[in-house]
Amino acid sequence: MIGRLNHIAIAVPDLAAATAKYRDQLGAQVGVPQPLPEHGVTVVFIDTGNTKIELLEILGENSPIAPFLEKNPSGGMHHVCFEVPDLAASVAQLRASGARVLGDGAPKIGAHGRPVVFLHPKDFDGTLIELEEVGE
Ligand code: CO
């Protein structure tokens, strides 16, 4: 079902500081900060060639990453995102297998403008998994 690893998301307490570390210490090609108010985060994309890193910082009230940063004040890996060709089919198959899809299970438009869902981390060894529909 899952295809390529689309990105690894890392929640950070200070986006400017984290971006500078990737650019200056790790020598990565970093993007510009993109505020995504509908997702409660500001994102910096880092292209590593075979995948992307997304640095996430809290934006506004009720950010979905706020509880994570409360538990992990110095930041940490928040989720991994795999590409799937047919999100509705994946959701149906996962639910039939007993996996929990977060929220009402209906895809939302993610940070890349494509439909995404998230799977319950307790069903996947403590890892929050995002599935993103990517056309052929
Ligand atoms: Co993501």
Write the H/E string, N to C.
EHEEEEHEHEEE
CATH homologous superfamily classification: 2,3-Dihydroxybiphenyl 1,2-Dioxygenase, domain 1
- State mean pLDDT (0 to 100 scale): 95
Name of the CATH first level: Alpha Beta
Strand tally is: 9
CATH architectural label: Roll
Structural class: alpha+beta
Major sheet: size, sense and barrel closure? Answer: 9 strands, mixed
Which value, in Å, is the CA radius of gyration? Answer: 15 Å
Low-confidence runs of at least 5 consecutive residues = none
Distance between the termini: 14 Å
Can you give the helix content as a percent range? 10-25%
Tally the structural domains: 1
Please tell me what the overall shape is.
Answer: globular
- The total count of helices amounts to 3
Task: Write structural notes for this entry.
The chain has 136 residues and is an alpha+beta fold. The chain has one domain (5-133): 2,3-Dihydroxybiphenyl 1,2-Dioxygenase, domain 1 (Roll). The chain contains three helices and nine strands. Strands 1, 2, 3, 4, 5, 6, 7, 8 and 9 form a nine-stranded mixed beta sheet that branches. The longest helix is centred in the N-terminal third of the chain and has 11 residues, at 15-25. The structure holds cobalt (II) ion (CO). Cobalt (II) ion binds at residues 7, 9, 54, 79, 81, 111, 130.
Characteristic key phrases:
136 residues; alpha+beta; 2,3-Dihydroxybiphenyl 1,2-Dioxygenase, domain 1; nine-stranded mixed β-sheet; globular; binds cobalt (II) ion
